[in-house]
Design a protein that fits this description.
This protein has about 350 residues and is α/β, with parallel strands linked by helices. The protein has a single domain, classed as TIM Barrel (Alpha-Beta Barrel), CATH 3.20.20. The protein has 17 helices and eight strands. An eight-stranded parallel beta sheet has the order 1-2-3-4-5-6-7-8, sandwiched between helices. Helix 10 links the parallel strand 5 and strand 6. Helix 10 runs parallel beside helix 11 and helix 16 packs antiparallel against helix 17. The protein starts with 9 loop residues before the first helix and ends with a helix.
Length: about 350
């Protein structure tokens, strides 16, 4: 596909106000921070050239979900102290603010982060919460947190983490998420746990339809009552599931580059983002794991316009759609939408 004739410079896209609904803390580490951790803990890593292939997707390796998920095995080794977890949280917020993200929902997996040094999950949650709150004030960005559990973990573990999250809603936790290997693990065993989470006031986002088919999206919507779907690109395989998602007003947290790197989309320019919009689905544009994919949200905005052919007007609509789909209270959400609408229009005209 030829470049969009209205493409602009990288700085133009960086200046646009943004909303990020789908970003993992574990996939947001700076490589230079990782190297500092390596040196301070005497880990057996020679240099950044040795480290990068372990934590970032490279062009000379297979784009598969196994390879993509393998990066997390290395990344989680770096969460070796409370200070490191706090620093990484602060830097993730700072990086988002530098990219002119006005509102971000940052998700993290307490169980996974607790295992490097056998921390208590409640302590991990508090460390992330405390530093996200401080960083949003320091860098002028609104940040809310989503606590994630993985499909391969037990329902009992998930229930414990979600209980901890429910107790901390006033500190900035707004939702819960089910992530992990959907190709091999069903979401259905978590239905009761997520129902209880919603009864406690937490909002629900489910990874589905990235490596699995449309049936996983149906399961997430009907069985787990998901308001938002992480990725969801294979929903198009079933007209019935497309109709279900459209009727429910389900929001799709689409991560274009990540979908390519994980092998869910073999050719980047053939990503189904535009087709999803043509089907009337409510899609938003996100990074997923900016460090693993070596991208920013500005990069994604530029890519969907230049390679997928979205106009700036459509991009603006998707940014506002993300704000409307946020897990903020109604009054805060309305304020965010109004401000974004004004600021985005002004930047488009510059």
């Amino acid at each position: 596909m030829p470049k969009n004739p209205y493409a602009h410079s990288p700085q133009f896209y960086k200046n646009l106000p943004k909303v990020e609904l789908h970003r993992h803390l574990e996939g947001s580490l700076r490589v230079r921070t990782m190297m500092e951790v390596v040196r301070s803990h005497d880990l057996d890593v020679k240099d950044t050239g040795y480290l990068r292939p372990l934590v970032q997707v490279n062009h000379n390796e297979p784009y598969t979900f196994e390879n993509f998920l393998s990066k997390f095995g290395t990344l989680r080794l770096f969460y070796r102290s409370p200070d490191i977890i706090k620093r990484i949280t602060r830097e993730a917020v700072e990086d988002a603010a530098t990219d002119n993200i006005r509102y971000m929902e940052l998700r993290f997996t307490p169980i996974a982060l607790s295992r490097a040094e056998d921390f208590c999950p409640d302590k991990v949650i508090d460390w992330v919460l405390e530093n996200a709150q401080e960083a949003q004030e320091e860098f002028g960005i609104i940040v809310r947190l989503i606590v994630s559990v993985n499909r391969h973990e037990s329902g009992e573990e998930a229930a414990k983490v979600i209980e901890l999250a429910a107790l901390r809603q006033e500190q900035g936790i707004v939702g819960v998420c089910l992530a992990g290997n959907e190709a091999e693990f069903s979401a259905e065993p978590f239905a009761a746990v997520f129902r209880e989470a919603q009864e406690e006031g937490l909002r629900v986002s489910i990874h589905a339809g990235e490596w699995g088919g449309a049936e996983n999206v149906r399961e997430a919507i009907q069985v787990l009552n998901a308001e938002r779907i992480g990725h969801g690109i294979h929903v198009l395989e079933s007209p019935n599931v497309v109709s279900l998602a459209r009727e429910r007003g389900t929001t799709f947290e689409v991560c274009v580059t990540s979908n390519h790197h994980s092998g869910a989309v073999s050719i980047l320019e053939e990503h189904p983002l535009s087709e999803m919009m043509l089907e009337g689905l409510n899609v938003t544009i996100n990074t997923d794991d900016p460090s693993i994919s070596k991208i920013t949200l500005s990069d994604e905005y530029r890519m969907v316009t230049e390679k997928l052919g979205l106009s700036l007007g459509v991009l603006r609509e998707r940014v506002l759609a993300a704000a409307r789909a946020s897990f903020l209270p109604a009054r805060e959400k309305s304020r965010l939408v109004r401000q974004l609408s004004t600021d985005f229009t002004e930047k488009m005209l510059q």
